[in-house]
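Milestone M4 deliverable, item 7.
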Amino acid sequence: MSWNPTMAPVPCHDSVDAALAEATWKYFLNPAAQNLQALVAPEFASPPREMLRAAVMIQGAHAAIDDESTIVARAIADSGHAVACRTGCCACCKQAVLANPFEAALIGIYLNNHPDLREEFGRAYARWDGQTGGMRDDFLAWAERRYRDNTDDGKYHFSDFHPDCPFLLDGLCRIYPVRPYACRSCLALSEECANPTTPGSRPGFQGMDVGSYTHYKKNYQLFLQSLWKRCGIDPKAVRNSFMPELVTIFLNDGVERLLKYCLAAK
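Output delivered:
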C-alpha cells in the first residue's frame, strides 16, 4: 500500500506538513511507539498554526481507515456476503455526527477552497440549526451519560436525532473526500440498514464501525492525543461537539475561536 500526501484533498502547506501527513499514514501501518513519537518530534509552531497542521495531518489517518475499510469489505465479500453501502445511499447521513476540531478544520479548509460548497453549506446549516437547536445540547448530554456512565433515563433514543446532514445534497455527500472518521468508518452489511423491517426503526442505524473491529480505533485515539499535544491542550479537557457546529465556527470565527469552543466548560 502507498499514499502520497501531495494527492490529498487539501494540499499540504509546506514540506513539514507533508512529512507529518505521510508519517501519520505510516504510523497506522506500524503503530510502534517511535512512529507515534515522530508525529510530535518537529518543532512546534503556535497553537493556531498547529491546529491547521493537524487538519492536514489527519488526512493520513483518513487514508489509513479507508485502507482498512477496503480490506474488511473484501473479506466480507470473500465470505459470500455483500456490503450494502453504495453511491446514492444516504441512510446513515441522517443522524448525530460528532467530530474533533481537526476534522472540522480540514472540512472548513476544503470548503474555503470550494466557495460554491461553502455557500451551499451556509444555507443548509441554517436549516439544520433550526431543526436541531432545541434539542442538540440536551441530546448530546444524554448520549454522553449513556456511553460514559452506562445509564439511560429513557429521555431519548439515538434515532431521535435524524435531520439531514447539512452536507447532504441530492443523496450525495458534498464533502466526501474530507468526511470525518464517524462517516468513513461506517459500513453496512445488510440492506436492513437502509430499509429496516423492524417496526419503529429508522434507516441508517445498523452499520458497523470498522475501526472498532481492527486496531485502528485504539491507535486513532493515541494519534489524536499527539495532535492535542502539538496544540498544547489536555485532551481530557475537550468536550464532544457536533460536526456541523465546529465547521461553522471555523468558517465564521477562525481557528482560535474553534480551539476555545472545544475547551469550553463541559
